[in-house]
Amino acid sequence: MKIAIDGPAGAGKSTVAQRVAKRLGMLYVDTGAMYRAATLTALTRGCSIEDEQCLRDLLDTIDLTLEIHDGMQRVYVDGEDVTEAIRSLEVTRRVSTVAAHPLVREKLVDMQRRIASRKNVVMDGRDIGTSVLPDAELKVFLTASIEERARRRLQELEQKGVKAEYGELLRDIEERDRKDSEREIAPLKQAKDAVLVDTTGCSIDEVVDRIVCLHREKI
Ligand code: C5P
């Protein structure tokens, strides 16, 4: 069984996907974390985010692993836990450039498909339903108004004690969605057979219940 959850930035995909996976006893895979880890590694090891071949060579040499601890995904690069570091503002602002390179996507999509071939997964990202797992039994396109997504991001950062400005977050989200939707390869797009779930004004529990219900209808 494979569940694909795609959608724009800040729609709550990871929180929702993680909880759905826990409820259904499936493995949660956050593919955005893989693109983020590639971006962080490029930044720390001096590889230009515009240099596709350098990025691919880097990905071919590093050991990128995802592990689940207490239901939460942790990300490691060559054994170093980078789970928090990949959420930085700098990585967030650059990740869409890295993710637009075909050689980067080829490598990471291959890893994603290999994981999904061994386990029942709930995988979240931008192109899971359209490209990574086109045969997923359930596809959900999760969205929310841009204002709500920026508000949620602000709250999340404030809870971590990070200062941020609403208008700036809104612009960053808009820009990232634009880049992700306009890229040539596997752009952010709702799959034809995906169910659109608008989470504006909904609680996390409501959204999780809805997806678990959709899953029940499929089995
Ligand atoms: O999901 P998250 O916001 O962490 O994703 C970070 C970035 O990684 C996205 O803005 C997008 O550029 C890229 N991404 C992608 N394909 C995916 C998942 C993420 O291109 N399946």
Automatic annotation (TrEMBL):
GO molecular function: ATP binding; CMP kinase activity; dCMP kinase activity
Catalytic activity: dCMP + ATP = dCDP + ADP; CMP + ATP = CDP + ADP
Domain of life: Bacteria
GO cellular component, one term: cytosol
Keyword list, A-Z: ATP-binding, Cytoplasm, Kinase, Nucleotide-binding, Transferase
An annotated GO BP: nucleobase-containing small molecule interconversion
Enzyme category, top tier: transferase
PANTHER family assigned: CYTIDYLATE KINASE (PTHR21299:SF2), CYTIDYLATE KINASE/PANTOATE-BETA-ALANINE LIGASE (PTHR21299)
Protein family per UniProt: Belongs to the cytidylate kinase family. Type 1 subfamily.
Name of the featured protein: Cytidylate kinase
Gene source species: Aneurinibacillus danicus
